[in-house]
Amino acid sequence: QVQLVESGGGLVQAGGSLRLSCAASGRTFSGGAMGWFRQAPGKEREFVAGITWSTWSGRRNHYVDSLKGRFTISRDIAKNTVYLHMSSLKPEDTAVYYCAGSEGSNFDDLRARLVSGYDYWGQGTQVTVST
Questions:
Q1: What is the pLDDT of residue 126?
Q2: How far apart are CA 121 and CA 94, in angstroms?
Q3: pLDDT category, 32, cuts 50, 70, 90?
Q4: Which DSSP state fits 92?
Q5: Is 109 helix (H, G, I), strand (E, B) or coil?
Q6: Relative to the CA of 5, which of 103, 111, 119, 125 has its CA 20 to 30 Å away?
Q7: 111, containing H or E segment
Q8: CB hemisphere CA count around 130 (13 angstroms)
Q9: Average pLDDT over residues 74-94
Q10: What are the Cα distances from residue 33, in Å, to 36, 88, 99, 109, 126?
Q11: Distance of alpha carbon 96 from its chain centroid, rounded?
Q12: Distances in Å between the alpha carbon of 28 and those of 1, 65, 72, 76, 104?
């Protein structure tokens, strides 16, 4: 059984930092992709960052342009865990953050950004940024 369990969310003041963790079990996703998405109230789930692997480009990180520089995705293969480091947080970053994984191969940048590109999802962790 595949499980993705997020942790690290919470309440933080604007300008602060958080590190979200996603521990995977049942699959390693080493040859596929893992990503972070977020969903604010009344909005659709949106891509935040992802790590993919493909035959032609190897391992790559992908980011939403608007978050690049503030958010960083990383992975500890030994722990089968992916992280999202978030800094200079803003109230508009408030959302439920979801971890996702897929064993599909040869993810390109477009597929990495799609909700439909992932097969497994965590339960989400709430991040609230106060003014």
A1: 98
A2: 19
A3: confident
A4: G
A5: helix
A6: 111
A7: helix 109-112
A8: 4
A9: 95
A10: 10, 26, 11, 11, 22
A11: 11
A12: 12, 27, 20, 11, 12
pLDDT of residue 51: 95
The helix (run of H) or strand (run of E) holding residue 81 is: strand 81-86
Across 9-23, 44-58, 77-91, least confident range: 44-58
> What b/e sequence results for 31-43 when a residue is b if at least 16 CB atoms lie within 10 Å of its CB, and e otherwise?
ebbbbbbbeeeee
71-76: strand order across its sheet: 3-7, 18-25, 81-86, 71-76
* Contact criterion met (CB below 8 Å) for 40 and 127: no
Q: How many helices (H) and strands (E) does the chain have?
A: 1, 11
Instruction: Tell me the percentage of the chain whose pLDDT exceeds 70.
Output: 100
The overall average pLDDT reported for the chain is: 94
Question: How would DSSP label each residue in 31-76?
Answer: TSEEEEEEE-TTS--EEEEEEEEETTTEEEEEE-GGGBTTEEEEEE
